Amino acid sequence: MAQITESVPRSSNKPKSAIGALFRRLLRSRTGMLGLVIVVLVTLIAIFAPLLAAHDPAKTDIMNRLVPPFWLDGGNMSYPLGTDNLGRDVLSRIIYGSRVSLLVGISAVLLAGAIGIVMGLLAGYYGKAWDFIIMRLVDSFLAIPSILFMLIILAVMGPSLMTLILVLGGTSWVVYARMVRSETLSVKERDYVRSAKAIGALDFRIIVKYILPNVISSFIVIATLNVASTIIMEASLSFLGLGIQSPDVSWGLMLSDGREYIATSWWVATFPGLAITITVLGVIFFGDWLRDVLDPKIKD
Amino acid sequence: MGEELLKVDGLKVRFKTDDGYITTVNGVSFSVKKGETLAIVGESGSGKSVTSLALMGILPPNGEVVDGDVTYKDKDLRTLSKKDYRKIRGNDISMIFQEPMTALNPVFTIGFQLREPLMLHEGLSKKEAQARGVEMLRNVGISDAEKVMGRFPHQLSGGMRQRVMIAMALSCNPELLIADEPTTALDVTIQAQILTLLRNLKESSNTSIMIITHDLGVVAELADRVIVMYAGEVVEVATVHELFESPQHPYTKGLLDSMPKIHDVVNELYSIEGTVPNPAEMPQGCKFHPRCPFGDEECVQTHPNLLNVKGDHAARCIKLAKKELVV
Amino acid sequence: MKYLLKSLLKTIPVLLLITMIVFVLMRLTGDPVSLMLPENATAEERDTLRESLGLNDPLPVQYLAFLGDLVKGDFGDSFRYNMDALDLVLERLPATLELAIASMIVAVIISVPLGILSAIKRNSVLDLFITGGAVVGKAMPNFWLGIMLILFFSVTFQLLPVSGRGTLAHLVLPAITLGTGIAAEMTRLIRSSMLEILGQDFIRTARSKGLRETVVVNQHAFRNALIPVVTIMALQTATLVGGTLITETVFAWPGLGQLLVQAVNLRDMAVVQAATFIIAIFVILSNLSADLIYRLLDPRIKYE
Predict the structure, then answer these.
(1) Signal sequence span per UniProt (chain C) (predicted)?
(2) Where in chain C is the domain with CATH 1.10.3720.10?
(3) What is the per-residue pLDDT for B327?
């Protein structure tokens, strides 16, 4: 038998750089690419808002209130998407609104992730009482719609940008805690971690070296998709008057103004909603692609 | 015996995957005669299960028959309407599967699942179907049949479930029973019971059986004729006696040598080196040559045809023609 | 029955923890006295109120007193409406339940056929449209969809009322707004659940029996696919609650959600608490019933 050495042809495993391979797969996924383009575009708009916006987003101009978009009768290129009930330029406000959306979306998710990782590590790594208390807390948070907690905190603390971030971050850490806990539990039992522990490695070192690298890809995927839901949540709370307050600009706030004038001036509410939808769609597309590539085991 | 019940000619099945099409059954031809038991043997990945699913017309959505003819009695199954095909399925031709644990629907009772084909094909009322179901369960050796009818699959053992599957497949008196690895997933003692059940069926009825297996012990126990498949092709056809007495294809020989024999005092079990090639990366020429002890340059160059050895015994190897392999 | 009792008992710790969280949030994040008295109140006035409210007692004592009031259903009076907060909340409850049930019906009517269809026509153009629509539905803020529906059906075509509650016509737009949001998520889940089930061995068995494809899909597959979907629908009650808050505000629907949002804006704490607890109980009950339905659907789970 041994004389036959010719083997079955195998797939060619040319060495490729990891980033290069990821990018190639991104190109192959049309929705993933679209998502990335939207995310990059919105980020650029947020960064360069002062350069892009033709008007001060908060400047009222009663003489030019409720001007329609340029293609309608009475519209002009000075206000391409029209003006709102106080004569503020809708396009400029949308451009500036992207800042709040991204700022709140990303910082709330980072906060939630930080809380979740700490909680998950405490529960998973130290177990016992920690695990019991944290998991009961997780259960309660899961049993109750997070919007209720948000409303209570907002009622007590009063709405502001900072409160909004705290509230959104403070109520969505549960997913991360569960993910980190279960990952920690499984990693903790692996031989190399046990032997590291046996030779007296510090907990901190074990956590940083063995546990965190294992959760990073799941974390990135969950966090990206979490940004999408947080952006919607911010808009919702601002729409309800509990989030961003005038004169700051938020897409949700614009929608609540637009709701009042929907019978006469449809553009005030339509365009900010479109901005939210496109941005969130971009983040979801990008996040779904990340999930497919980084972590196929996570499902909805 | 003698009359052909099912005739397969040049069957070709391919699957659509992310990396394009792969052909897993490539020009398979054989026939099943009335009352005979035909075994299809091969390692996993040889295309034997796909062949049976193609005959039943229940390939997964990404699979399709692209070439060949399948004739059952006088009907061309490939051009049959969906409706007429359904009338054959579960009625004239029925099938039992490898995994009894997952082959039954977990949310319906055994009774519900047994009554289904009876009410569908035989037009029985629920009550009549219930009575027939109980009878069928008794026939496959389940004594407390009434009780079992009311049970859910998870409440039964693997062996019991396979009996239920067999009862279900036989309930409409099929002319052909396709059994895809019916014993593989079971314990050894249960295996023997299920095999006995199939042998009784073979002896007591005129039902043709097509048994798909990788286990030559099962073949020896049940089969009249054997087809050996490798990499989507038939590599040898013979009666069971011929095959065990004078195997012609090196692959068949390998399979036989790797079979444990009770009387032999061999220290080591022989096994064929390597694995069945991935269908996406089929070797040139003879598909077995990379694993064949006799493979040479010629085998890489030429794809051999099925060659007659004597009578109905044929094998797919060029060395045969040159008599280099005659034992 | 025994199981039901057991599950009810199990919800008690969760409820307790929720009361604790609410209590801690209320006490630690703000001084109720400063919310209850006008800005220019004297220190003496504050102290008197503090004493009368028992706020000078140690926290555990305060918590017990708080729990005692809860059990009695005493959340205090709404300063905005000058009436018992719980009564106010219960008065608004039917409107919200009406909206929630109608929305769930809309969601099921949309998502079940579409989810099944996109699963059996996997990777077809139809599937692409359905899954694409579901993603867009998820990305679209609920309230924006509501506003767009008002623009279209009420303003442009004047087919349906803009807002308020009363006739069935009033219910249509809010129910569609809230229902489609939930349908978007459910369609995706039904699709993936169906896809998983359709690949199972027992589906192959069902086909091998000669059953019609509709029977295979709608009976053999869907009954199994339903099991995870029911659990998911229960999780959707949380989305539903969030959705009612917003939808009710968009359509001026006089329900619990609108009341709660107003109360939060006005810092009407008694109402906030009462509404929170009623909603919490509603969510817990719906989770419980989902759990029971789950047991009915899946014979593999033993009855206790």
Answers:
(1) none
(2) 87-252+280-297
(3) 43
What is the spatial distance between Cα B233 and Cα B286, in angstroms, rounded to a whole number?
Answer: 10
pLDDT at B269: 59
Quick: pLDDT tens for A144-177: 778 888 888 887 778 889 989 999 998 899 999 9
Task: Tell me the nearest-neighbour CA distance from B84 into chain A, angstroms.
Answer: 40
Is B293 within 8 Å of chain A by CB?
yes
Min Cα–Cα distance to chain C from B155, Å: 8
Contact criterion met (CB < 8 Å) for B86 and C208: no
Per-residue confidence band for C27, with pLDDT thresholds at 50, 70 and 90: low
Closest approach of A269 to chain C, Cα-based (Å): 8
Are residues B9 and B234 in contact, defined by beta-carbon separation less than 8 angstroms? no
Using alpha carbons only, what angle is made at residue B16 by residues B11 and B17, rounded to the nearest 5 degrees? 135
Q: Quick one: pLDDT at residue A104? A: 95
* H runs (alpha helix) in B140-279: 145-149, 158-170, 188-204, 216-222, 240-245, 250-257
**B4-92+174-321: CATH topology:** Rossmann fold (3.40.50)
Q: A3 touching B, CB under 8 A?
A: yes
Asked if B60's CB is within 8 angstroms of C211's CB, the reply is: no
Spell out the CATH class of A98-294.
mainly alpha
Residues from chain C that touch A236, judged by Cβ atoms under 8 A, are 141-143, 242, 246
B306 close to B249: Cβ distance less than 8 angstroms: no
Residues of A in Cβ contact (< 8 Å) with C135:
281, 284-285
Cβ within 8 Å of residue C72, ≥6 positions away? none
Q: How far apart are CA A217 and CA A184, in angstroms?
A: 14
Q: Which residue has the tokens 């129910």?
A: C175
**ipTM tops 0.90:** no
Q: Where are the domains of chain B?
A: 4-92+174-321, 102-173
- The whole-angstrom distance between B46's CA and the closest CA on chain A is 15
Determine whether the interchain pair C148/A270 forms a contact, defined as Cβ–Cβ distance below 8 Å: yes
Cβ contact, residue pair C208, B89, below 8 Å: yes
**Would you say how long chain B is, in residues?**
327
**What percentage of chain C has pLDDT greater than the value 90?**
36
pLDDT tens for each residue of C117-165? 999 988 889 999 999 999 999 999 989 999 999 999 988 888 888 888 8
Nearest chain A residue to C144 by CA distance is: A273
Chain segment B254-301, per-residue pLDDT in tens: 888 877 765 655 555 567 777 778 877 788 888 888 888 888 888 888
Q: Do A7 and B290 touch (CB under 8 A)?
A: yes
Q: Taking the domain C87-252+280-297, which CATH number applies?
A: 1.10.3720.10
Q: Is C299 in a helix, a strand, or coil?
A: coil
